[in-house]
Design a protein that fits this description.
five-stranded mixed beta sheet, alpha/beta, about 260 residues
Length: about 260
């Protein structure tokens, strides 16, 4: 990894986001707009990475999975348009573009090393180049705020809320949810409904760089560039509330 990778992730996410804003401004049928947005951003990101990082493999939500990634040294994990539903709804700003880099380490494993989350409709790009400082303070708030899916919040998160009297805050895309934690608008994002690596790779890279806790809901490490791209669950939160939430999760899921 070089500093240029951080710059590239930030720049590509931002540029893809600008193209999506221009497309969205043209209006039209929401479903047609959503499909066009997915395609436009995917084609831009994959072409740019092919030109600028020709030796790397790209894993994109909108592209075919290249099995070469499993033996590759460097894999870009991108979600060209996270929150496609919200993108097609006029006035919504909770959609994002994700660009992350996974690199293999000397022991044969690997991890995320750079990433960016563009929130185009909010005029923001969060990245590992200049990580946000993260929420201040090392004490848990009187009432924890947990961001959840506005369309399908997992029932166990509602159970957690009841157990610790947390406030649930509905929001759109995964990138927008993690960004809300990074920026201190909420304290945590808990999800257990399953999603894919591209949904969380870039948000997790930026969250870690900002000093936040990021793990599976049982506290185990998140792993990327895996043979099975499905990720069952995630917890991203302020370090001050990680212990509280992990204990509550164990209680409501009856984990040992």
């Amino acid at each position: 990894m070089t500093g240029d990778d951080h710059v590239l992730a930030r720049d590509l996410a931002g540029q893809a986001g600008q193209r999506l804003l221009e497309l969205r401004a043209q209006g039209g049928d929401p479903d047609v707009l959503r499909k066009a947005g997915d395609r436009l951003s995917h084609e831009f990101l994959t072409a740019a990475l092919a030109a600028l990082r020709p030796g790397d493999v790209v894993l994109s939500e909108e592209g075919a999975d290249n099995p070469a990634r499993l033996g590759a040294r460097r894999v870009w994990i991108v979600d060209p348009l996270d929150g496609t539903r919200e993108f097609g709804e006029p006035g919504r700003s909770d959609w994002a573009v994700h660009v992350a880099l996974w690199e293999r380490t000397g022991d044969g494993s690997g991890d995320l090393t750079a990433g960016a989350v563009a929130l185009p409709a909010q005029g923001t790009v969060l990245s590992t180049l200049e990580p946000p400082p993260g929420p201040p303070g090392d004490e848990a708030p009187a009432r924890i705020r947990i961001v959840v899916s506005r369309s399908r919040p997992p029932s166990f998160v509602r159970n957690i809320s009841g157990l610790i009297n947390a406030e649930l805050v509905p929001l759109g895309s995964a990138g927008a949810k993690v960004a809300a934690v990074i920026c201190g608008e909420v304290d945590a994002y808990v999800h257990g409904g399953g999603f894919y690596e591209w949904d969380t790779a870039a948000p997790v890279a930026v969250a870690r760089a900002a000093g936040l806790h990021a793990s599976r809901i049982d506290g185990s490490a998140l792993a990327y560039n895996q043979p099975d791209l499905l990720m069952p669950d995630i917890l991203v939160c302020r370090p001050a509330v990680a212990g509280i939430l992990l204990r509550a999760i164990r209680e409501v899921t009856h984990a040992s």
